[in-house]
TrEMBL record:
One of its GO terms (molecular function) is ATP binding. Belongs to the CoaE family. PROSITE patterns: DPCK (PS51219). The keyword Nucleotide-binding applies. SUPFAM superfamilies: P-loop containing nucleoside triphosphate hydrolases. Catalyzes the phosphorylation of the 3'-hydroxyl group of dephosphocoenzyme A to form coenzyme A. It comes from Pseudomonas indica. It is found in: Cytoplasm. Pfam families: CoaE (PF01121). It catalyses: 3'-dephospho-CoA + ATP = ADP + CoA + H(+). ATP binds at G14, S15, G16, K17, T18, A19. This is Dephospho-CoA kinase.
Amino acid sequence: MSKPWILGLTGGIGSGKTAVAQHFIDLGVHLVDADHAARWVVEPGRPALDRIAEHFGQEVLLPDGQLDRAALRGRIFQNPEERRWLEGLLHPLIGQEILAHLGRAESPYAILVSPLLVESGQHRLAQRVLVVDAPEHLQLARTIQRDHVTEEQVHAILQVQAKREERLRHADDVIVNDRDLSWLKAEVERLHHFYLTLRGGQP
């Protein structure tokens, strides 16, 4: 059997990429979530967590030895240098974790879903990129409703994520998710059937 090719799936906050990812899973496609990989590499007992505690101090750990994400976020959010140090440590480890999980795929193609696919350079792991896009007013409304956050907080996240133009520049395929869920599912199915005809992610 030929090795599955990799589809990178991304989209801004509130674009609907989680719903798209779930529908691909329902269709039997092997999917790896970069956010999950990012959590796995900092689990207790993994070398990354020791390095983080060494660098930032024990106050970034919870009493049970898990990473205190809120405390760590607080340390790096206002400090670009510390954020770069952390990214330099974690990105290669997350990349290895992702490749190991993608390597277990048995579907004709596998999906790497990552909110920071473009920014982190993870798009280089993929042969093809699908961007889920949505008008900003919909991104705001969905995220505020889902996460119970303020408009300011959503704007702050949008600032950190790649600009829409940058994401779309890397896209081979785009779903503009501004309709209902049944339309979205139909779009995913249409793309899935197209992807099954591809070898190595290209027509």
